[in-house]
Amino acid sequence: MGTKRMTTGFSDQVMSLVKSLRTEAPDCVAAGVVDMSTGMLLSYETVDNHPPEVLDLLAGATLDLFQGRTVVMIEDVFKERRNTTNDNHFFQEILVNSDNLTHLFVRMNEQQDVVAVVVCRKSVNVGMLFAQTRRVVKEHSL
Questions:
Q1: Helices 126-139 & 8-24 angle (0-180, nearest 10)
Q2: Rounded to whole angstroms, what are the CA distances from 95 to 79, 82, 124?
Q3: Interatomic CA distance for residues 127 and 47, integer angstroms
Q4: What pLDDT does residue 2 have?
Q5: How many domains does the chain have?
Q6: Which top-level group of life is the source organism from (predicted)?
Q7: pLDDT in tens, 69-106
Q8: Nearest to 21 by CA among 115, 122, 94, 123
Q9: Residue 51: which CATH number?
Q10: Is position 97 within any domain?
């Protein structure tokens, strides 16, 4: 799985996913893809210029949201209670609202350690945001 990320084909797939998210998610102002196994922001597009340190922090924040210590503990409790032994993660999508923006984080179906991130204006229709993002992610399986 790790070697797949190093190929040119994978890089092209990631850039295509970001471009599709950026153009097809409603009211989208930024989109990106985070590899949680390396802690890297693989690709992004945004309408604004952001300091590089903010973009670097996005990958870390995504990792904390999906695989922070407490989140892993919650997943372990649910797996234990449900007698589940697979390695799939419990949290697949996370929606975060800030003062002016809505952020949607979605794990890729095939590669659970890769997360697509979409940032939209707060006025976005959240139902449409989920529908469009899910459709695009499904079409761009990595």
A1: 160
A2: 23, 25, 12
A3: 23
A4: 42
A5: 1
A6: Bacteria
A7: 999 899 889 888 988 877 778 889 999 999 999 999 99
A8: 115
A9: 3.30.450.30
A10: yes
